[in-house]
Design a protein that fits this description.
Layout (H helix, E strand, L loop, with lengths): L2 H14 L4 H7 L4 H8 L7 H11 L3 H4 L8 H12 L4 H21 L2
Helix pairs in contact: 2-3
Length: 111
């Protein structure tokens, strides 16, 4: 986890909303000293704190963690699994057919 990049992204979003560190810290129920350490990448934060933070900043967790999550094949496959879990077999088959059509289109356009 790159806490410096996470802290930089938090700082950018806080400034976008014209909030001080103290105001943001108060809004998410942490000390302003801890908020400053998070923004400098000196401290980690709990999932609960991260959720309160993204909710206050109006961004998503995946946006905040974009630098920390790699897009390798196993992660992509896990994302597909998460999306399709709980879906009926017919919908899963339809999704596979859509992907096949999409990839076929990409192959033809690439030529």
């Amino acid at each position: 986890m790159d806490y410096k990049r996470l802290g930089k992204r938090i700082r950018e979003e806080r400034k976008r909303l014209n909030l001080t560190q103290a105001e943001l810290a108060e809004a998410i129920d942490i000390s302003d000293t801890y908020m400053g350490a998070i923004e400098r990448g000196e401290r980690s934060l709990t999932l609960d704190t991260l959720v309160r933070l993204v909710n206050r900043l109006g961004v998503t967790i995946d946006y905040m963690l974009a630098d920390s999550v790699s897009d390798n094949d196993s992660n992509i496959l896990e994302q597909f699994k998460q999306i399709t879990d709980g879906q009926p077999l017919e919908r899963k088959q339809l999704a596979i057919n859509v992907l096949r059509t999409l990839f076929s289109y990409f192959e033809n356009v690439g030529r």
